[in-house]
UniProtKB/TrEMBL annotation:
It comes from the Eukaryota. This is Sulfotransferase. Signal peptide: none annotated. The keyword Membrane applies. It comes from Leptobrachium leishanense (Leishan spiny toad). InterPro entries: CS_Sulfotransferase, P-loop_NTPase, Sulfotransferase_dom. The chain crosses the membrane at residues 21-43. Residues 428-449 are annotated as: Disordered. One of its GO terms (molecular function) is N-acetylgalactosamine 4-sulfate 6-O-sulfotransferase activity. Belongs to the sulfotransferase 1 family. PANTHER family: CARBOHYDRATE SULFOTRANSFERASE 15.
C-alpha cells in the first residue's frame, strides 16, 4: 500500500517518470498474460468453456428463448461456441468498491480541484473558483486540447463573465449534468446531434473529450505513444461557453441572494466512458490482480452521485462489423472480418481459461492485440459495474434499432428523462429530417454485409451475454432475436 500511495503521488509531480514505472510493470504483467493466453490457446486448441454462470442481484427471472442453431464454421471455433451455449449463463462476480480515501490516494489533484458541493441555483454541477489572471492573459494558453478556434471564442467573453465579489474575480466552473457514455458505433453521434438542437442543452466544446478514460492519462490511443497527461482544468475549460452562459443568466438577476435557477443542462458525449478502463494497468500499480482496482465510474460517482447517463446500444454482432469497417484502414472485406473474428474468439476463450470476464474485458495488453473489439459488445458486464454504484433510474438505455425506427419517440424519452421540455412540432421535424450522423461510408457499404457464417458464430458468442443483459434490464428486446421482437 505504501508503494502504491507514493507512486500515485509522484504521477502528478513527475508524470514522465511515473509513466516509465507504469510502463515497466505493465510490460511485465502484459508479457505474463500474453504467455499464459497463448500457451492456453496452443495447449487447449480453443476447446474450453467460454463462459460461466451469470448472477446479478438486480436481474429478474423470466423465460428466454435460446437459439443454438449452427452453420458450418471452423471446427475449433464451433467447439468453443458449443461449450458456451451449453453454459446457460455468464459468471460476473461482484467487484470491490473503493472508498473515497483510496480514490483520493490515486488522484489527489482531481480531489483538490472538484469540490464536494455545487451551486444550488444551477441544475448542472457548477462552482466558483478565484481567478488569479489579468485581463490581457490567455486562460487557455496551456490547454492540451489545443482548440484554437473554440478557445478564441471563449476568450472573447471570458473576462466579462467573471464574477466580481469583495475586490476579487471568480470564475464559474461546471461539470456535465449528463453523460452519453456508450457504446461506440451504436448511434451516440446521432443522439448527440439531436440533443444539440434542444435550446436548453449545451455540450462540451466537442463531442468526445475522452478525458475520464484516456486524456487524463496522456492517452490519445493505446496504440500510440503516451502524451502529456491533461489535468482536470483542461477538461473543465471545455465547458466554459456553457458556464459563461449560465453566468450571464445570473448577472441578469438582482443579486446573488435572489438568483433564480438557470435552466441549461450541460452534457458530454465520450462513447468510451462506459467501457474503456484500459489505462488502469499503466497507472494504478496493481500487478498482482488481473482486475482493475478502480474504474472510471468510481471517480464520477464520488463527485457526482446524482449524475444522469444516456446509453445507446445495438445488436453487438452488427456493432462489431460496423466497428471493423470504421476503424480498419486497409484490406477490408467480409472475408478478412471473418478471419479476424475467428482469431479474436479463440484468443478471448483462452483468456477466460485463466481470468475472469471482467479481467479479460479490461485487460490493456489483451485489448491491444485482439484483431477486433469483441469486448465492447459485452454490455451486461459494463452495465453491472455501473449499476453497482448508481441507481438504475439514473440511466436511460436506448436501442439503436428503436431509435432509428422512431426518432421522435426516442428523443421524447430523452427529454423526459432529462426533465427537458418537448420541442415544437417544427423543431421535432428538423430532427427527423436530418440524415443519420456518422453512418456507414459509401466505400464501406460497397463491401456488403458480413458472411452468414460470421454472423452465426458472433450471434452464438454474444447470446449468453445478451441473455444476461435482457435479464438485467427485464426486457427481451436486448436478446436481439428477431423472432422475439417482431
Amino acid at each position: 500500500m505504501d508503494f502504491k500511495m507514493s507512486t500515485s503521488k509522484r504521477c502528478w509531480i513527475n508524470p514522465q517518470k511515473c509513466l516509465r514505472v507504469g510502463e515497466f510493470f505493465c510490460l511485465l504483467m502484459g508479457l505474463a498474460i500474453m504467455v499464459l493466453v497463448v500457451s492456453s490457446y496452443v495447449l487447449n486448441k480453443g476447446r474450453q468453456d467460454l463462459a460461466q454462470p451469470f448472477y446479478s442481484s438486480t436481474a429478474r427471472d423470466f423465460s428466454l428463448i435460446s437459439n443454438s442453431s449452427k452453420t458450418e464454421i471452423h471446427t475449433e471455433v464451433n467447439q468453443v461456441i458449443s461449450q458456451l451455449l451449453r453454459s446457460n449463463e455468464i459468471n460476473l462476480l461482484s467487484r470491490r468498491i473503493p472508498d473515497r480515501e483510496e480514490l483520493e490516494q490515486h488522484e489527489p489533484h482531481l480531489f483538490s480541484v472538484i469540490p464536494g458541493n455545487f451551486l444550488r441555483t444551477s441544475r448542472s454541477p457548477c462552482w466558483y473558483v478565484k481567478y488569479h489572471g489579468n485581463r490581457t492573459g490567455d486562460p487557455y494558453k496551456a490547454n492540451g486540447y489545443a482548440l484554437r478556434g473554440t478557445f478564441k471564442k471563449m476568450r472573447q467573453g471570458f473576462w466579462d463573465s467573471l464574477q466580481l465579489l469583495g475586490g476579487n474575480r471568480f470564475r464559474l466552473r461546471c461539470l456535465p449534468y449528463f453523460y452519453i457514455i456508450g457504446q461506440p458505433k451504436c448511434g451516440t453521434t446521432d443522439l448527440y446531434d439531436s440533443l444539440l438542437l434542444h435550446p436548453r442543452v449545451r455540450f462540451s466544446a466537442f463531442k468526445e473529450p475522452h478525458w475520464w478514460t484516456r486524456r487524463r492519462f496522456g492517452i490519445s490511443s493505446l496504440k500510440e505513444p503516451f502524451h502529456k497527461p491533461l489535468p482536470v482544468e483542461d477538461y473543465l475549460d471545455l465547458f466554459d461557453l456553457a458556464a459563461q452562459e449560465i453566468q450571464n443568466h445570473y448577472d441578469k438577476q438582482q443579486g446573488m441572494e435572489n438568483r433564480t435557477a438557470d435552466d441549461l443542462l450541460i452534457g458530454e458525449g465520450s462513447a468510451s466512458t462506459m467501457w474503456d478502463n484500459s489505462a488502469w494497468s499503466y497507472f494504478y500499480d496493481n500487478i498482482t490482480n488481473t482486475e482493475p482496482p478502480v474504474l472510471i465510474q468510481d471517480f464520477i460517482h464520488t463527485f457526482q452521485p446524482n449524475a444522469k447517463f444516456l446509453i445507446m446500444l445495438r445488436d453487438p454482432v452488427e456493432r462489431l462489423y460496423s466497428d471493423y469497417l470504421y476503424f480498419a484502414i486497409t484490406n477490408k472485406s467480409a472475408e478478412d472480418f471473418h478471419d479476424k473474428v475467428n482469431e479474436s474468439l479463440q484468443m478471448f476463450e483462452s483468456c477466460l481459461q485463466i481470468s475472469s470476464v471482467r479481467a479479460c474485458a479490461y485487460n490493456t495488453t489483451f485489448s491491444n492485440i485482439m484483431p477486433v473489439r469483441l469486448q465492447v459488445g459485452l454490455y451486461v458486464m459494463y452495465l453491472s459495474d455501473w449499476f453497482s454504484l448508481f441507481h438504475m433510474n439514473q440511466f436511460l438505455i436506448l436501442r439503436l434499432e428503436d431509435h432509428s425506427a422512431n426518432i421522435t419517440h426516442s428523443m421524447r424519452l430523452v427529454y423526459d428523462f432529462l426533465h427537458l421540455g418537448h420541442l415544437s412540432n417544427k423543431e421535432e421535424t428538423s430532427i427527423t429530417h436530418n440524415p443519420a450522423s456518422n453512418s456507414r461510408r459509401p466505400d464501406d457499404r460497397s463491401l456488403g454485409p458480413m458472411l452468414p457464417q460470421t454472423r452465426q458464430i458472433l450471434k452464438d458468442f454474444y447470446h449468453p451475454y445478451n441473455k444476461g443483459l435482457a435479464r438485467l434490464l427485464a426486457d427481451i428486446a436486448y436478446l436481439w432475436e428477431s423472432e422475439l421482437i417482431h
